[in-house]
């Protein structure tokens, strides 16, 4: 890793930097072969993927219950879990081979994270994960679909944190009515990591209307896929 990137990664991950290195190494060694990333991404994993994901950690209050929808290669969920071990994180992914990868990574790095196979729009998933404080997603779907899928997982007042590109503001304008119908309010664009990344991470934030009817208990009993370690 180039010295400059290493210094920036240490600033972001602090004492947890070694786990970030281990995750990035696993992704570099296995990501292409297992269909998680394209061949061209290997040389830019830190800047474009790992740090790009980790810098959004500043958007989550301490102890938040967070769902990473469509986690895939573990982005942004794994970097978030490394940078913020206080978060109560669930990685939600529908594809079995990616679930297998995520489970292997969580165990290899000793992360206190749940891995769940399913889709956000499925009834059992909504019942299990409803009442979350935040839902995040990266390169999953347009905002209109994300709102329909993700907002029902949130408690009223909870927040969708969607990592987007430069056209985020245009996407908000285009999908404003769909977001409103899904129960979303106050959509806004923010950037994270301007002091760390050459290209800061663009994020769309959408709150779930606090008057929305709850779809389940705010803090349902966890149904983990593996025993959780003591914090």
UniProtKB/TrEMBL annotation:
<feature type="binding site">
    <location>
        <position position="138"/>
    </location>
    <ligand>
        <name>S-adenosyl-L-methionine</name>
    </ligand>
</feature>
<keyword id="KW-0489">Methyltransferase</keyword>
<dbReference type="InterPro" id="IPR003682">
    <property type="entry name" value="rRNA_ssu_MeTfrase_G"/>
</dbReference>
<keyword id="KW-0949">S-adenosyl-L-methionine</keyword>
<feature type="binding site">
    <location>
        <position position="70"/>
    </location>
    <ligand>
        <name>S-adenosyl-L-methionine</name>
    </ligand>
</feature>
<keyword id="KW-0808">Transferase</keyword>
<dbReference type="Pfam" id="PF02527">
    <property type="entry name" value="GidB"/>
</dbReference>
<keyword id="KW-0698">rRNA processing</keyword>
<keyword id="KW-0963">Cytoplasm</keyword>
<dbReference type="GO" id="GO:0005829">
    <property type="term" value="C:cytosol"/>
</dbReference>
<comment type="function">
    <text>Specifically methylates the N7 position of a guanine in 16S rRNA.</text>
</comment>
<dbReference type="InterPro" id="IPR029063">
    <property type="entry name" value="SAM-dependent_MTases_sf"/>
</dbReference>
<dbReference type="GO" id="GO:0070043">
    <property type="term" value="F:rRNA (guanine-N7-)-methyltransferase activity"/>
</dbReference>
<comment type="similarity">
    <text>Belongs to the methyltransferase superfamily. RNA methyltransferase RsmG family.</text>
</comment>
<feature type="binding site">
    <location>
        <begin position="120"/>
        <end position="121"/>
    </location>
    <ligand>
        <name>S-adenosyl-L-methionine</name>
    </ligand>
</feature>
<protein>
    <recommendedName>
        <fullName>Ribosomal RNA small subunit methyltransferase G</fullName>
        <ecNumber>2.1.1.-</ecNumber>
    </recommendedName>
</protein>
<feature type="region of interest" description="Disordered">
    <location>
        <begin position="208"/>
        <end position="231"/>
    </location>
</feature>
<feature type="compositionally biased region" description="Basic residues">
    <location>
        <begin position="215"/>
        <end position="231"/>
    </location>
</feature>
<feature type="binding site">
    <location>
        <position position="75"/>
    </location>
    <ligand>
        <name>S-adenosyl-L-methionine</name>
    </ligand>
</feature>
